[in-house]
Amino acid sequence: xxxxxxxxxxxxxxxxxxxxxxxxxxxxxxxxxxxxxxxxxxxxxxxxxxxxxxxxxxxxxxxxxxxxxxxxxxxxxxxxxxxxxxxxxxxxxxxxxxxxxxxxxxxxxxxxxxxxxxxxxxxxxxxxxxxxxxxxxxxxxxxxxxxxxxxxxxxxxxxxxxxxxxxxxxxxxxxxxxxxxxxxxxxxxxxxxxxxxxxxxxxxxxxxxxxxxxxxxxxxxxxxxxxxxxxxxxxxxxxxxxxxxxxxxxxxxxxxxxxxxxxxxxxxxxxxxxxxxxxxxxxxxxxxxxxxxxxxxxxxxxxxxxxxxxxxxxxxxxxxxxxxxxxxxxxxxxxxxxxxxxxxxxxxxxxxxxxxxxxxxxxxxxxxxxxxxx
Length: 374
Description:
Elements: H1 2-23, H2 27-30, E1 35-44, H3 48-54, H4 71-76, E2 79-84, H5 103-112, E3 116-118, H6 128-142, E4 145-147, E5 149-150, H7 153-159, E6 162-166, E7 169-177, E8 190-191, H8 196-208, E9 213-219, H9 230-242, E10 246-250, E11 258-261, E12 270-273, E13 278-280, E14 290-299, E15 306-318, H10 320-323, E16 329-332, H11 342-362, E17 367-368
Parallel strand pairs: 1-2, 1-13, 2-3, 3-4, 7-9, 9-10, 10-12, 15-17
Antiparallel strand pairs: 1-14, 5-8, 6-7, 11-12, 14-15, 15-16
Protein name: Capsule synthesis protein, CapA
Family: Belongs to the CapA family.
Domain Capsule synthesis protein CapA: 37-283
């Protein structure tokens, strides 16, 4: 049975690779700039146990081990995007329910290869408007692109939609949250909320930028639910009908299905990811200890860029209580077995078994891909 699973996994991986080979036989060889890879990951959390694990005797924090097994994949992407679900609100640092992560957490994400951080989520005001402003200041100090929160309306006009240029491509990112846990934002600061009239205006603004693609990153859904809400499906289709090319979701802390929508009048494929799940966290209830990376491959064409390939790759987070090691580590699904102890392997296999069974039932037209083992 295990060998049959391996065969199916290899077949799925080759299905993704075949797309790349068929549409990109000369791109890499000739060094042409007519393709762009985007990598999306889920929730980048920072719970108390993660703070304790990373804290050094001198009071600083070391997060280097957290991404060591996946940073090559992150850096390989032309643009890597993550959902930063904690503010950088300064001391005292804290985990759930009111987060504030050390600045070293942002440094670690930059060093791992992240290019864009999404900040419109229900925890962005955990340290109030002051924490929001400090988070923006930290983004600016490192020169990192971000979307979803702004110090004032002038800054939002200048920086939103977020337009990222790479390899001759221009990608417009939109980012919205369903709420902020009831915490109000103080004037003049702004948090992008899911409001159809505002989203419509922002999509129009994005289209006027003449981008190669518009990608809406949504913080939505119901926590721990494995299937998306009907309202989320309707919102996604509505945004696609207005000119958004792909929709990437987060918030439920579990992985939800991926859909390829090709039923709109334009007849082109659009990727809709309802929830990427947790990329790294201390959550341990069933389905929450892992997540996925989703890769999109765009290719230049007359007008807007076309989707040339896509795939998802599962990840799982180990923690000191399981590994006996000091820090948390994100592992790819095809990690070398000798890197895990028996308890870790059992927990990872449980997560992967559940999510693969679920995806076999609900996800069509997109396949799992695998990282090169380190």
